[in-house]
User: Fold Serine/threonine kinase from Gossypium arboreum.
Amino acid sequence: MDSARSWFKKFQHKNEKVENSPKKKKDLENAKYAHKPPIDGAEAPSTATKQKAAAAKQYIENHYKAQMKNLQDRKERRWMLERKLADADVTAEEQMNMLKFLEEKETEYMRLQRHKMGVDDFEPLTHIGRGA
Assistant:
């Protein structure tokens, strides 16, 4: 289970600190790409291409931020349950069962989140436009 939870840590550097200041981030990005000429004499990217790249970058960043937030929320819910179980008079076996049940529910919820909604997920109530 730990390997599933920590897959994203492969992409993070432990010693690297990320500045939260948007101005500093922009300055770093501009400095990083300012001195690079176009590859093999190709044209510089058009404004539309830059906008699409920025939109894709934003989408990816939002996606991973949401994943990290969901991971943090799951950890917090588990921690709260563990704390409540520690305070309550519950046997170790019952504690393990409760934690296993929480993991099953979390897994089921994540699976439902990934499921794409389709026509088969709905039930028709009335037929419209069939005539008399």
User: Anything to note?
Assistant: Residues 73-114 form one domain.
